[in-house]
Every structure is written in structure tokens, then in C-alpha cells.
Automatic annotation (TrEMBL):
<keyword id="KW-0411">Iron-sulfur</keyword>
<keyword id="KW-0479">Metal-binding</keyword>
<keyword id="KW-0408">Iron</keyword>
<dbReference type="InterPro" id="IPR050584">
    <property type="entry name" value="Cholesterol_7-desaturase"/>
</dbReference>
<feature type="domain" description="Rieske">
    <location>
        <begin position="12"/>
        <end position="114"/>
    </location>
</feature>
<keyword id="KW-0223">Dioxygenase</keyword>
<keyword id="KW-0001">2Fe-2S</keyword>
<dbReference type="InterPro" id="IPR036922">
    <property type="entry name" value="Rieske_2Fe-2S_sf"/>
</dbReference>
<dbReference type="InterPro" id="IPR017941">
    <property type="entry name" value="Rieske_2Fe-2S"/>
</dbReference>
<dbReference type="InterPro" id="IPR044043">
    <property type="entry name" value="VanA_C_cat"/>
</dbReference>
<dbReference type="Pfam" id="PF00355">
    <property type="entry name" value="Rieske"/>
</dbReference>
<dbReference type="Pfam" id="PF19112">
    <property type="entry name" value="VanA_C"/>
</dbReference>
<dbReference type="GO" id="GO:0051213">
    <property type="term" value="F:dioxygenase activity"/>
</dbReference>
<protein>
    <submittedName>
        <fullName>Aromatic ring-hydroxylating dioxygenase subunit alpha</fullName>
    </submittedName>
</protein>
<dbReference type="GO" id="GO:0051537">
    <property type="term" value="F:2 iron, 2 sulfur cluster binding"/>
</dbReference>
<keyword id="KW-0560">Oxidoreductase</keyword>
<dbReference type="GO" id="GO:0046872">
    <property type="term" value="F:metal ion binding"/>
</dbReference>
Length: 352
């Protein structure tokens, strides 16, 4: 196992979307560990260290044979439990002490989750309860980006939405984001940042979603949970609907789903999506909504990768933190405390 001072290992991370992982081996480095993922004939997921125990060729280059993988170099065959089933020389007796590491996986809420650390601690109850992703009153879809930056920079970005005014000016950004007061607090195992923007014009993205003119009340509630997720309750409602920060199902509401899975110290896997409680029976809208959201997050990817390069180019400089950065700062502190404690606290259900 690769040790790190920047991420937890005894925790559930998203390894992939359910549709990403199929019968063909998929290579993905998670928390510094090369992993190969594939589905068995019964469609359950296998996760093994992506290195043949013979000469370390990636098993993701191997040949599927039933539920097993045969190394493409010398032909060592390994079962889905990572244990040798057949030697390179078929006349040699099978040595079942030859094996590669296997990992605990679990499917829930359209994601395949993996536990890189101590298997004995891999309790499925610690997987976040992503109720909007499975509730019949909501529709959920999303995508994936490989992002060349420390995963904590993405957490900083998602917990400080003041950047929307400038980075996403053509879609969800507007000056009122910079003018509205924000409240940051620690709520149990979560860090929460709230912003309420009453009586404003809706930005293009939300104006199209609402489908009617007039002033709106807009909200943003960001929740960070260990080891590396940010859920953002967002939306707008007509002013006359009487929405509040505590109760806001009157207009159009979405739950932005963000999971950051560390790959290396300077790269991560970003799984993004949105669950919504409107236009539930319109698959065309779902596809357009996903495309628009993907465009918004592609703008973040450009900014964050440039920021990472600037950090590497300026090793004598440190990041500064202003009041708008409090959500990200407290989230980093939670990660650091959990690493020192050697365990992640259970993730909580997003606010409703």
C-alpha cells in the first residue's frame, strides 16, 4: 500500500461509474495503487492490483478467460480472487501461494466503490447515503474527468463558489454570488458552507431550467464529507414561491454530486453529476443537462490544472486563505485530523 500524508486509505473511494466497468479490464490508479477492474460473468466487479506477481506486467493488458485473467507476458492465470490458477508451464503444479492483492468493492448509487486500506475495516455502512441518486423522485446522471491536480484543490474549488462569477460567467456565475453573505460551520463529520441570494435574476443555466421569467431566490449549500466528497444543494425558485434556505423544493432543485478519488499527489479522478427533482420524464433534457454540467466542470479543470502547475513552479510560495476559503480550509483540516487518527468518520446524509 502506498502511504500518503494527503489522503486517507481506510475509506471508500469511487473507482468508477457502473457503466465504465465492463468485462474488459480497466486500469485505474487509486491512492497511488495501480488497480485493474472488470466484471465477472455474473456482472459482479473484481478489483486486483494491476501487476502480475511474476514479472509485474500490468494485468490490465491480460486476456480474459471466464472470470479469470491470464497475463499477456508468460501466461500466468489468476482467478478473480487474485490467486494463481495455472502456471506459465502447464506441466508445473499450481502454486496457490502466488497471488496478487485483491480489494473490496461494492456497488451503490450508480458508482463502484473501492476500499484500498485494511479490508477488515471495509464496512459498506460507511458508503455515503446518496439518497438523491436513488430516490424515485429524482433523476441522476453525470460523468468523469481525469484532473491533473491535487484532489484537495478540487475540494477547495467546490467549497468556495465565489469563483463561479468569473470562471463560469456564461452559465451559472453572476455578480450576486460575490455580494451575498456566506456562513461556514462544522456540522458533525461535515463542513457546510451556505449562501442565500434573494430576489435576483437567475443566471442562464438556471433560467433555462426554471423555464419562466421573473426574479428568483437562489441558494447554494456545500457539504464536504470524508474522505473526499462535496455535495452541493443548488437551485432557484420564483420569489413569490416563498422558498427559504431551510425549505426550497418550490422551484427547480439539484444536488451536485462530486467525488474526488486521489490518483497521485498531483492528480485525481473526478466523478461528477447532478441529481434533480424536476423534468423527471425527459431523457433529452437529462442528456442536455449533463452536457451543460460537463462544460461547467471542464472550465474548472482548466483552472485547477493551471493552478497545480503554478504551485509546482513556485515551491517557495504558499497558498493564501481568505474568508471565502474557510470551507476548503476546514475540509483540509478534517482530512488531516482523520489521517492522523488513522480512520475516516462515517459520511452523513446530505441535507434535504
Amino acid at each position: 500500500m502506498v502511504t500518503s500524508t494527503t489522503w486517507l486509505t481506510d475509506a471508500w473511494y469511487v473507482a468508477g461509474w457502473d457503466a465504465e466497468i465492463d468485462s474488459a479490464p480497466l486500469a485505474r490508479t487509486i491512492c497511488g495503487v495501480p488497480v485493474v477492474l472488470y466484471r465477472k460473468l455474473d456482472r459482479s466487479v473484481v478489483a486486483l492490483r494491476d501487476a502480475c506477481p511474476h514479472r509485474l506486467l500490468p494485468l490490465s493488458m491480460g486476456i480474459r478467460e471466464g472470470d479469470s485473467l491470464r497475463c499477456k507476458y508468460h501466461g500466468l492465470k489468476l482467478g478473480p480472487d487474485g490467486v494463481a490458477e495455472e502456471m506459465p508451464l502447464k506441466t508445473d503444479p499450481v502454486n496457490r501461494r502466488i497471488c496478487t492483492e485483491s480489494f473490496v468493492v461494492h456497488e451503490r448509487h450508480r458508482f463502484v466503490w473501492i476500499w484500498i486500506g485494511d479490508k477488515a475495516k471495509a464496512d459498506p455502512a460507511l458508503i455515503p447515503d446518496l439518497w438523491p441518486c436513488s430516490d424515485p423522485g429524482w433523476v441522476f446522471d453525470g460523468g468523469y474527468y481525469h484532473v491533473g491536480c491535487d484532489y484537495r484543490l478540487m475540494i477547495d474549488n467546490l467549497m468556495d463558489l465565489t469563483h463561479e462569477t468569473h470562471v463560469h460567467s456564461g452559465s451559472i456565475g453572476q455578480p450576486e454570488i460575490l455580494e451575498a453573505p456566506i456562513e461556514t460551520r462544522v456540522d458533525g463529520a461535515e463542513v457546510v458552507v451556505e449562501r442565500w441570494m434573494p430576489g435576483i435574476d437567475a443566471p442562464p443555466f438556471w433560467r433555462a431550467a426554471l423555464g419562466q421569467p421573473g426574479l428568483v431566490d437562489r441558494w447554494q449549500i456545500c457539504r464536504f464529507a470524508l474522505p473526499a466528497s462535496v455535495m452541493i444543494d443548488v437551485g432557484v425558485a420564483p420569489v413569490e414561491a416563498g422558498a427559504t434556505l431551510e425549505s426550497h423544493d418550490q422551484g427547480v432543485r439539484g444536488m451536485v454530486i462530486d467525488f474526488m478519488t486521489p490518483e497521485s499527489e498531483t492528480s485525481h479522478h473526478y466523478f461528477w453529476g447532478m441529481a434533480r427533482n424536476f423534468a423527471l420524464d425527459d431523457p433529452g433534457f437529462t442528456a442536455r443537462f449533463k452536457r451543460q454540467q460537463g462544460g461547467v466542470f471542464a472550465e474548472d479543470k482548466v483552472i485547477l490544472e493551471a493552478q497545480q502547475q503554478a504551485i509546482l513552479a513556485n515551491p517557495d510560495l504558499k497558498l493564501s486563505a481568505y474568508r471565502i476559503d474557510e470551507g476548503g480550509t476546514r475540509s483540509r483540516q478534517a482530512i488531516t485530523r482523520a489521517i492522523r487518527a488513522g480512520q475516516a468518520e462515517p459520511a452523513l446524509t446530505p441535507a434535504t
